[in-house]
Amino acid sequence: MEEVDKILIQALKQVGTEVSEETDSVKQFTSELIVEAVVRCIRVIEPGLGGALPTSLPPGMSARFRVGMSLAQACQDLGYKGDIGYQTFLYSNEPEIRSLLMFLVEKLPRESAESSDQPTGKSVVLQRSIAAALRAQLAVPWLPPACRLPLQTQTQSLGSMHSFQVQPLSLPLGPPASEQTLLKEVEEYRRDVLRPVTAQLSSHCTTAASLLERHTAELSAAHEWDVEWKSQGLLSRLTPQEYRSRKLSRLRKRIEEQLRSATLPAADGAAAGPASSSSSADLSDLLQSFRSSSASDRLLTKGTHFTHTQKFTFAQDVMAAVSPAPSGGRSEGDAAQRRQDELDVLQQQLQELNGQAERLAADMRLMTVTGAQVKDELKQRERGNAEEEDRIHVKKKTIDLLPDADDNLLQLQAVMEASSQRLVHLAAQWEKHRTPLIEEHRRLKEIRSSQDLESSRKLSEIKSLHDKIRVSTEESRKKEETYKQLVSELDSLPQDASRSAYTQRILEIVSNIKKQKEEITKILTDTKDLQKEINSLTGKLDRTFAVTDELVFKDAKKDESVRKSYKYLAALHENCNQLIQTIEDTGTILREIRDLEEQIETENSNKTMANLERILEDYKAIRQENAALAAKVREG
Length: 636
Known about the structure:
By secondary structure, the chain is an all-alpha fold. Helices cover 79% and strands 0% of the residues. It has 21 helices and no strands.
């Protein structure tokens, strides 16, 4: 029972029962400890049922009886079938308490049992403390601001609540393989220029939200790349770098085609006049929407010699206009008015120049688009002229051959026959070359199909290996966490206990159980053998008596002495039956004596006398309480 009691005590500690280190057996449990352990277990099993039960006994005896009855009823509601009442908790009985605690521990939820068996590392302890703090805060009811205690003021104040705001972050990520040459500059930038994450945000409250958003975006991008690589990248039979570069080049080519198709005119050059001018205006508007004002400014800065001269002249005029005039004979107010007038004139000139620059930029863009359209039309017309020249050349040759048509026809037929013979000869030669080429093509096609099958098989194997790697990585991560928890638990365990002592103890328990099992098997075998022997002797005795009775009864009708023998035989049989019955009754009485002795030992172990003394003391206390209540009633 020592091992069972240790397991029970460990389980009770896991549910929150305060059991001292000196207590190592259920026999040492007091009534207060029993009540606390039972209530803790009921609260874990059925929170609604155990929420109203106190974890300690009240001082009054009548209140103690009510608590005992409530606990007994709660245990019966949970399904306990044993004999239970208030006396189970107030006047503890070791076997009853042990069976009750075993029932409650077995009723504990599986999560609690698993958590009690699993090692408790630092991370697990931290998670449990966080969960306990959250449960405690959620259990506190909401109160108005005027009625809040310090705890409610701290947890229910609106000052600690912030909206979910995200700001972009610049994190010191590692450079890709193509940027290894910039590693020194990147390190210098990160060391000297890049600010910490907390300094990049406008408010400290957005730090967690921004980090979570950045991390979620990176995880999503990594997941999308993984899915795309497994679905399309592996089929392309390229390396990841080649696949990415090819994808980037395709994207750039598609953007260029879209822009080129937007800038080029329609394929048929039939549109002219107002339609062409409107399409040109639309294209210029479209291209202008893709360009910014800064780009036009850059175009203007790269102007001609005329624009540079104009800017230089304008600068000289501005300098001459803003140069201070001689102060002789003029007042300070006139000078200020003059400067204001000059400033207005200069601003008006600046606006006019800006308008001229914008108009020039628009004209340049229109000219550029118009020039591209004109070049395209010129190319189309050149291609049309070349086709017309070919048709005219053919017609000219045909007209030159018309005067001598008969001779030309004969020559043409001869040329056609020679050409047909040449074609037949070439076809025969081609057939000679075609047959081995077709066979080679078929062979290469078969090889390619077999290679495709092999590559598909290898691709499926690679996918399965990827899945296995992912599963193995997850299992290794879980095992690593379990290993860390086990190491932390091993560090927290006392170092004086050795593994060999526990092993030796387990082996001794197993050997004792094996010996007891062998003895029980031997006793059962002996009992079965004795029962078989008794049954065989009883049957043999019955058969012998029946045969003897029949023979003696036949002779008793003829002879008087045989008749007396028959009477003696019947008396002997009856006396033997009485003797056997007496032996059986003696065995029954001996068994009852042993059972009574065991019951006496059990009652002695139940501390009956001590319980009777406690019952008498409780009875006297109840009488005193009743007398005090009656006195109060009479006084009232």
